[in-house]
Amino acid sequence: MAVQHRHNYCSVIKYFTTCMILSICALFYVSLTIENYALNYFNFSMIKYDDKLLFLNQSSLTYHMEQTEFYPHLPIQIYTKNREKFIKLRNKTKKIILLANGFFDDETWSMKSIKNKTNSGNMSELYCSFLNNQCEITNDRNRFTQADAVVYHMRNYINRSDEILKYRHPSQRFIFTSWESPRHSIDLRSYRNFFNWTMTYKFDSHIFASYYASDTYRSKDSQWFKNLPYNYEQKTVLYENINTTKKLGTVAALISNCLTPESQRTLLITELKKYVDVTVYGKCGKPCPNSIDCRTYIAERYYFFLSFENSYCEDYTTEKLFSTVALPIVPIVFGKVNYTRYIPQSAFINVQQFPSISKLSERLYQIRTNRTLYQEYFQWKKNFIWDRFLQFMSPFCDLCLRLHLDKTPNIIHNIHKWWYHEKCDPEVQN
Ligand SMILES: *[C@@H]1O[C@H](CO)[C@@H](O)[C@H](O)[C@H]1NC(C)=O
Ligand SMILES: *[C@@H]1O[C@H](CO)[C@@H](O)[C@H](O)[C@H]1NC(C)=O
Ligand SMILES: *[C@@H]1O[C@H](CO)[C@@H](O)[C@H](O)[C@H]1NC(C)=O
Ligand SMILES: *[C@@H]1O[C@H](CO)[C@@H](O)[C@H](O)[C@H]1NC(C)=O
Ligand SMILES: *[C@@H]1O[C@H](CO)[C@@H](O)[C@H](O)[C@H]1NC(C)=O
Ligand SMILES: *[C@@H]1O[C@H](CO)[C@@H](O)[C@H](O)[C@H]1NC(C)=O
Ligand SMILES: *[C@@H]1O[C@H](CO)[C@@H](O)[C@H](O)[C@H]1NC(C)=O
Ligand SMILES: *[C@@H]1O[C@H](CO)[C@@H](O)[C@H](O)[C@H]1NC(C)=O
Ligand SMILES: *[C@@H]1O[C@H](CO)[C@@H](O)[C@H](O)[C@H]1NC(C)=O
Ligand SMILES: *[C@@H]1O[C@H](CO)[C@@H](O)[C@H](O)[C@H]1NC(C)=O
């Protein structure tokens, strides 16, 4: 399972790395200065402060938190009050971020600039080159005592008897990091008072890290878009001319882990197949043609795509949703997520909003056979642009900033409770 996840993840990373070579991506960010960053980025930075489970004291913070006005409604940090303070960062000493264990055994965490065990990565690779002088990322454990942040990936081994832990000092932040759901995590009861901050996809993390980064979109009405220093031409038209004649069938899925017969996903698909044609692509289904991206292939030939998460855990959403949102197909979602945080209600079909699979199928038939109705699912995209505005590891940019700007001490007393408090539905795996 871990290996499987790693594969998915690494291919995502490779994709981004390739993209970085494209000048469009590079130009976007390299051209931003730190002052621009203050104007542009802070208002859209994705950091969230939670006062409940993480024992944060809101009143002692100078940040103003809210959700972005446009989709996706991510938790962001509005930092207008502290703009002055932010600009002063230019002259501050670098914060050291230590990657204290591997990322699925990858010591470099897929960062190209970290070539070996005693190297440093740079912030450009994370799409925040304007922070190159503010932070340094390293996996050199000999620099433990210098580190301002010590980042642990929770899917990798953590040696609790490690000598270096004896030298932990109170100003360091230990970071609990996971891009994956709690399903395969370890028991965390022995980690009481160990971590200071969290960096996960959960909306109440200190540093928010979402698979949204895999296929990002921004509203053209947003200030962010208006502030772009050049005229942006949308490369892909995602709403006009949706071909409502799809040749191959009604519903398709792309599943990389073979389905176990008893899993919720299998049961749903089996049930759905009683009423409507469903084609499963992927390792245990039909092979995709090699010549074309499988999702694109499906999107052009089917009406609906099953974006079913393999873990039914609070807030857990992956590329299963985001890669579909960018394509001319309507996602049918199933996950323990408030999807309207990411896309409007008019953009997707949620299995859970139907009393039965047969009712769901009736609706699918209705949508499929009414061209106008089908096209309505794409209307919202008119006001959005798609591009790689982020890199999957970009939360490290937020971490860098927060290390500079948030002086409030914080100890996570009960990480086990926070991570597991809403148990994942055990039936839904695969
Ligand atoms: C929060 O922090 C402020 C300033 O440090 C302090 O005055 C206040 O008592 C704290 N509140 C709680 C509930 O701990
Ligand atoms: C940074 O330092 C330089 C040289 O010491 C100084 O001239 C400049 O005003 C400083 N900038 C800020 C934003 O503090
Ligand atoms: C940062 O790393 C990238 C990727 O290795 C490299 O191309 C770039 O030159 C580096 N930039 C700096 C400022 O070190
Ligand atoms: C790691 O990379 C640095 C800089 O590229 C180089 O100086 C050093 O010799 C390398 N170390 C090893 C063990 O390869
Ligand atoms: C954990 O750290 C201790 C102390 O440094 C060391 O002796 C031990 O070999 C480490 N265990 C593993 C599995 O790396
Ligand atoms: C961000 O906030 C600053 C300060 O209030 C403001 O001048 C700027 O226009 C805002 N930028 C965006 C993109 O909203
Ligand atoms: C839509 O797709 C169908 C089936 O692939 C094709 O025959 C038709 O020409 C396409 N229509 C348009 C307007 O592209
Ligand atoms: C879901 O998210 C939307 C957008 O942020 C919000 O308006 C709505 O209240 C949320 N619904 C629930 C049930 O939390
Ligand atoms: C098709 O859908 C549109 C938009 O919802 C609706 O106004 C129209 O009545 C529907 N047509 C039929 C034949 O059901
Ligand atoms: C981080 O947590 C440790 C362990 O509970 C604590 O000793 C330390 O003061 C905390 N550091 C910060 C900066 O909050």
From TrEMBL:
Principal EC category: transferase
EC assignment: the record states 2.4.1.-
Which keywords does this Swiss-Prot/TrEMBL entry list? Glycoprotein, Glycosyltransferase, Golgi apparatus, Membrane, Signal-anchor, Transferase, Transmembrane, Transmembrane helix
In terms of SUPFAM superfamilies, this protein maps to:
UDP-Glycosyltransferase/glycogen phosphorylase
Please name the PANTHER family in this protein's record: ALPHA-(1,3)-FUCOSYLTRANSFERASE C-RELATED
Name of this protein: Fucosyltransferase
The GO terms describing molecular function are: fucosyltransferase activity
* Residue ranges of the TM segments: 12-32
Q: GO terms for CC? A: Golgi cisterna membrane; Golgi membrane
